[in-house]
Amino acid sequence: MKLDIMTMSLLSKYVSLIFPDYRFEKILLEFERTMSMELDFTQEAKNSERTTSCFRKNDVVKVPHVFWELTTKEVLTMEFCTGHKVDDLDFLRKADISPTKVAKALIELFGEMIFIHGFVHGDPHPGNILVSPRGQGRFSLVLLDHGIYKELDPKFRLDYCKLWKALISLDVQKILELGEQFGVGKYAKYFPLIFTGRTIDSKSALGTQISGEEKTRIKQDLNSLGMDDISSFMESLPPDFLVILRTE
After folding, report:
1. CA-CA distance, 92 to 103, in Å (whole number)?
2. pLDDT tens digits for range 132-170
3. pTM for the full predicted model
4. Ordered alpha helix ranges (H), the chain
5. Sheet holding 84-85, edge to edge
6. How many Cα atoms sit within 13 Å of 223 on the Cβ side?
7. How many Å apart are CA 19 and CA 17, to the nearest integer?
8. Is 123 a catalytic residue?
9. Residue 132, strand partner residues
């Protein structure tokens, strides 16, 4: 892995020399950190047990039990849990499980991780979250692959909470202020687009239909973004934000 990281670092430097607006150093450092964590299975086991402790009072979230006597840095032995990928709608219908309730449980799961525990799963794709039926429409969310976690800075968590409050209340000034605090500057105007699918000057509350005019403005905003804008935006984001974006 060290050779791969060195190769990527060298390529990143060459790209930055040829295209000064493309800077990936921070992203590469975060990638190196997370990969070193994921290749140590004892660390994954510890993350798993910490997550179990965080959700011990939650009867929906299930984390497979770790068998420490059969676990090393190279081998992880855990309880086998059955279930289907969280985005398998055909399965949910056949099992008489409400997709809306599953979505709500997912939002609550990651909301609790971010805002209460500050300990966030770093690879939450559908294959790492299983829905396990419990009969009569009830279910468990089985959380797998605990190799990558991010411990969020308390100030970041508070500011991120303020950002969501500003997004929901359509407080443009506060969104821009928080953008300065997060270090993204002029790109703060894209926060509503990223998180709520709305423009910075939108008057449409969450849960309501946006107008055709606003849809046109969204397309215009997206079309106006160049690769240098995307690169600069990603480079300016704090590492904590990069993890959060993967949960959205």
Report:
1. 12
2. 999 999 999 999 999 989 999 999 999 999 999 999 999
3. 0.78
4. 2-18, 25-38, 41-54, 89-94, 99-112, 154-168, 172-182, 191-196, 212-224, 227-236, 239-247
5. 61-62, 138-143, 129-135, 84-85
6. 6
7. 6
8. yes
9. 140
